Amino acid sequence: MRTFKKFNKRSRTLTPSGELTRRFLERLAQMVKCPEQIVLVELWRNWPVVMGEDISAFCLPLGHKDDRLEIGCEDTMAMQELQYLRGEVLDRANSFMEKEFFRDLKIHLILDQKPLWQAGGDSVYSKPPEPAGGNCEGTWLDSMDPDSPVARAYRAYCRRKDA
């Protein structure tokens, strides 16, 4: 992909295309009176940095509706863990937005939905194929704390499915 730059004749300098795009989007957002949309796009792009490794390992952003942040997770165990981290997720998202933009959080199972993780067409999240026997592989076990109650319950669930 080529990046274009604008040449300023007076100062004899080049302006990078990313800077030109940012300026254009800011002016466009002010004209349509929705400047928070630009910050929302930055929130989706910087999701792992904003949420940290511990939270972003369990959830992906799916969007927002009015003042509600919608996130998705792989399974019900991660969904339950995110219920306990609800306040933390909202605090981190609102601090990135620099105001109280989100007041509520809705957690979905991802299934076939495409997250807003990246701007491309392909989804970053891909569900691993289930083996023919239907046994559980414990996809998230390596990213969980092995001594946590959630990890122990998930490990027991996987053993039960294997038996």
Describe it.
With about 160 residues, this protein is α+β, with helices and mostly antiparallel strands. The chain has helices at about 15-30, 35-45, 45-55, 75-85, 85-95, 150-160, and strands at about 5-10, 15, 60-65, 70-75, 105-110. Strand 1 and strand 2 form a beta hairpin. Mean pLDDT is about 75; it is low at about 120-135.
Q: What strand order characterises the main sheet? A: 3-4-5
- Report the uncertain regions: 118-135
What structural class is derived from the secondary structure elements? Answer: alpha+beta
Question: Sheet bearing the most strands, described?
Answer: 3 strands, mixed
Shape: elongated
* Mean pLDDT value: 76
- Euclidean distance between termini CA atoms: 51 Å
Share of helical residues: 40-55%
In DSSP terms (H or I, runs of 4 or more residues), the helix count works out at 6
- DSSP strand tally: 5
Order of helices and strands: EEHHHEEHHEH
Radius of gyration: 20 Å
Q: What share of residues are in beta strands?
A: 15-25%
Which SSEs are present, and which pair or pack?
Elements: E1 6-8, E2 13-15, H1 17-31, H2 36-45, H3 47-56, E3 59-65, E4 68-73, H4 76-84, H5 86-97, E5 104-109, H6 149-162
Concise structural overview:
The chain has 6 helices and 5 strands. The chain has helices at residues 17-31, 36-45, 47-56, 76-84, 86-97, 149-162; strands at 6-8, 13-15, 59-65, 68-73, 104-109.
Essential attributes:
163 residues; 3-stranded mixed beta sheet; two-stranded antiparallel sheet
